[in-house]
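Dear Dr. H.,

I hope your travels went smoothly. While you were away I took the liberty of generating a structure for the chain from your last submission, since the lab meeting agenda had it listed for discussion. I wanted you to have the full record in hand beforehand rather than looking at slides cold. The sequence, exactly as received, is reproduced here:
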Amino acid sequence: MSERGAAPYPLRPDGSMGGMKRFGSGEKLKPASIYRMLASIYADAKLEWKSLLAAVLCLCAISLLQFAIPQLTRITIDSIIPDRAFDRLFFVCAGILGSAALLGIFGYASTSLIASAGQKVLYKLRNDLYRHIQSLDVSFFDRNRTGDLMSRVTSDVNILQQMISSSMMQLITDLFTFTAIALYMLWIDWRLTLLLLATFPFMLLTTRLFGKRMRSSFRAVQASVADVSDHLQNALTGIRLIKSFTAEAYEAKRFEDRTTANMDANIQVVRLRAAYEPIIDFLNFAGLAIVLVFGAWLAMTDQMTVGTIVAFIAYLRLLQNPIRHFSRIINTIQQAAAGYERIMEIMNTTAEVVEREDAILLPQGKGSIVFREVDFAYGEGARLFESFDLELEGGKITALVGSSGSGKSTIAHLIARFYDPQGGGITIDGYDLRSVTLQSLREQIGIVSQDIVLFNGSIMDNIRYGRMDASDEQVLAAAEAANASRFIEAFPEGFHTQIGERGVKLSGGQKQRLSIARAILKDPRIIILDEATASLDTESEQHIQDALSQLLQGRTCLVIAHRLSTIQQADRIYVLEQGNIVEHGTHEELIHLAGRYRQLYDLQFPQSEQTRLTASPRKREVKAL
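The corresponding predicted structure, in token form, is as follows:
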């Protein structure tokens, strides 16, 4: 559980949270250039230059073959039929069938080569994106929704995959075909070709006008997909809470609202596409009309043969096909550009907690932790700590108590360097946390919290997460030390039992003992117990306390607790209120001080004073334990 003062991101008067910038939340973003996207993809694709070169040669061959077939038609009409050259029909038939077969072969080769290169580019992009997300600090995840991040890694990258694997191949093929045929048509009759090409600027202008709106609409579609994904992720992980409060209808309505937004965004895209494609088709038919009318006039004036007109119409179809394809490809490209923008938003985000270039490895030491004049606030919120001082003695147990929001968990987060203070410094054995590598720091810290994180997998895998290279024997020893072996071996599959998502098949006490076993296996120098037994029953708590006694021996330990019965044996207890230490001492010293700690103690144990005064020393000792 994270305690962050009154509110790390204060509520505005309208009820929204201040200090948070969340991706895809509707703010106007500067559109990413399609050319920049293609240049970025090309930069990664250059590593596959051999495959791409082979694909380009195949595309050149495809363009030449498409160019050859209309020529065979022209020869048949202008030469073979008038000359009644029956013997030449076989060669025409063989030429057309051979060209068709070669088109299939080269098409298969080019598709396979481009798709393979594209998949490798996307493989690198998705892995780079995931690694970058992993490198960002905790505050980034505080500001952004899990479902939205998942959508960027999956849906947005998949859209790029569609563009690279199919659309880009079609675009490259059409570019070669269009260039070759346009040059040939200019050579045959430049007047007719120029009249035909006069329609193309109108196509480009239409594409440009619709392109901007399409990209905006596709961005709305992808943002709505992220909203749906985020809601679905929250609903599925919180299904027990939903059912316990009979909130199925409420959640269904919320999901319906998000899918309605997705539906409306998709309808807007369809409407733009439905308006765009008929305009392109009209301009294509205008080109056909020009060829038929002007070409017929040339034929009737003996300036062009009928076979040439037929070939010209065939070339016109080949010339118009790229435009037709482009009208569809532009949809994919615009959608990919919107997805690329969303991916680049993540890739261009930098972590606030970073290592220095000259960071050193944190040596093994006593584990003494010192806060000196630390200033800290979450985001733009009010300061939680101001000139805050605290010392955790190495090899001793230090406890933090206080009201919710007083800053106890924040101290744990600062020690693990999930956040950096805005002022002052924190040292371990004299080393400033910002001067050591994050890995060497966190390798020496073990955290056992009330909010236990377990992964869908086996018990063995979850314990071994504490140290990936641990042997089975070491995992079993850690489970034994955590008092977990008995319940684990009671399962039919023992340590290989699958525990389900977030350990749903285990009880709270069992999950907690697994987390302690994981911490024992890690063998950290510093232990942080953040409300580790707050939600457990008495029997489970006793098992946990026995396991913790194994874990804490000879280590620096920070215990954060609301239940004062768990910290009475601490070497030093600090009482925090609103980011300030108001009292400190041992349990007995604080009881006799009759301050805030005594007040909290009496609230939890109303009869404690009378019992403490009348009980024998032996009974008081048992009571404390």
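Two observations you may find useful: Confidence is low (pLDDT under 50) at residues 1-32, 608-625. Residues 448-523 form a domain with the Rossmann fold fold (CATH 3.40.50.300).

With kind regards,
E. W.
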